[in-house]
Amino acid sequence: MLVLGAGPVGQTAALLLARWGLPVVMLDRRPARDLTGSKAICQQRDVLDVWAAVGCEAIAAEGLTWTTSRTYYRDRELFSARFGDPGRSPLPPFVNLSQARTEEILDERIAATPLIDTRWGHEVVHLTQDEYGVAVKCADGTVVRGSHAIACTGARGGAVREALGLGFDGESYDDRFLICDIRAELPGWESERRFYFDPEWNPGRQVLMHPCPGSVFRIDWQVPPDFDLEAEEASGMLDRRIRHIVGDQPYELVWRSVYRFHSRLADRMSVGRVLLAGDCAHLVAPFGARGLNSGVPDAENAAWKIAFVRHGWAPEALLATYHDERRAAALENLWVTGATMRFLVPRTPAERRRRQAILERAAVDPEGVTAVDSGRFAEPFRYTASPLTTRDGEFTGRAAAPGVILPDVPVSVPGRPEVSRLRHLTRDGVLVLLAGGCDRAAVTSALADAVSAPVQVTDIGESGALSDALGTRPHEVWVIRPDAHIAAILTNPTSADLTRAVLRALGHPTS
Question: Where is the FAD-binding domain (predicted)?
Answer without folding.
Answer: 2-330
